């Protein structure tokens, strides 16, 4: 079993690298009228499935994060169990016009390793896709206001015993709005908020999400980044009884459908470094700042954004 899981991790890594390499060739053929690579662009680092940039870009973004699950995830007979979560995703965005873009934000592979009591599993994440429209686009002042809609299909296949962590139900719709502005040539602020609405409200929870991103260019090409995120459940589901797992809901990546959930807020700090005109590397550390942690005791993530 361990050998199989390691092979799957290697395959996921190879998929990520292949997706990145395949994106570099056709970039030359895109309509350069849609390219604003000389404009200020520092996309968010944390909350990758909800925190959407307001800019309209063509890009590919392979990302990986390690998420430590709190040790009190399940408590039975005086024994606590936490675990580890490894996630690989390749996001993609394509600018159709200067105002419209289509996007794929969630896909890939997750490996959930529980310490004890619960069985571990790995498999595909749900697949989320959609579109966004820039109602306000002022690249000369780096100011953008964008709205969008995504659908998350229940295509995933991850479970722990009888608990579905991905897949099942009828999926989600996510309605969001994002704003971005450069307050100064070195300082930028971005916000994003939206509603993650379950189609089958008995199977999945409906929630509200919000993010704030601030970046500062310390030296040319190197940006210090701080971000805060809030995810609060508006309507609980009926799939997983809270007497089994408490108020865990899955934060931004998994979906427990708990009968009792709540609010979790996190703080992330990291950096982005520009690798030439068309690429940015990012590294971030994130942790909860509320008493309720959900599945995130802490998270370490990295990504590579190749954009036009």
Poorly predicted sequence stretches spanning 5 or more consecutive residues: 1-35
Q: Mind describing the biggest β-sheet?
A: 12 strands, antiparallel, barrel
Mean pLDDT across residues: 87
The CATH class: Mainly Beta
Question: What's a quick, concise take on this entry?
Answer:
This protein is mainly beta. The chain has a single domain (2-307), classed as monomeric porin ompg (Porin, Beta Barrel).
Report on this model:
This protein is mostly beta strands and 308 residues long. It has one domain (2-307): Porin. The chain contains 2 helices and 16 strands. The chain has a 12-stranded antiparallel barrel with strand order 1-2-3-6-7-10-11-12-13-14-15-16. Strand 12 and strand 13 form a beta hairpin. The termini are far apart. 42% of the residues are buried.
Question: Which helices and strands appear, and what pairs or packs with what?
Answer:
Blueprint: H1 2-24, E1 59-76, E2 79-95, E3 100-106, E4 109-114, E5 121-124, E6 127-138, E7 143-153, E8 158-160, E9 163-166, E10 172-184, E11 187-198, E12 206-219, E13 222-235, H2 242-245, E14 263-274, E15 279-288, E16 298-307
Antiparallel strand pairs: 1-2, 1-16, 2-3, 2-4, 3-6, 4-5, 6-7, 7-10, 8-9, 10-11, 11-12, 12-13, 13-14, 14-15, 15-16
Key words describing this protein structure:
single chain; mainly beta; 12-stranded antiparallel beta barrel; 2 helices; 9% helix; disordered N terminus
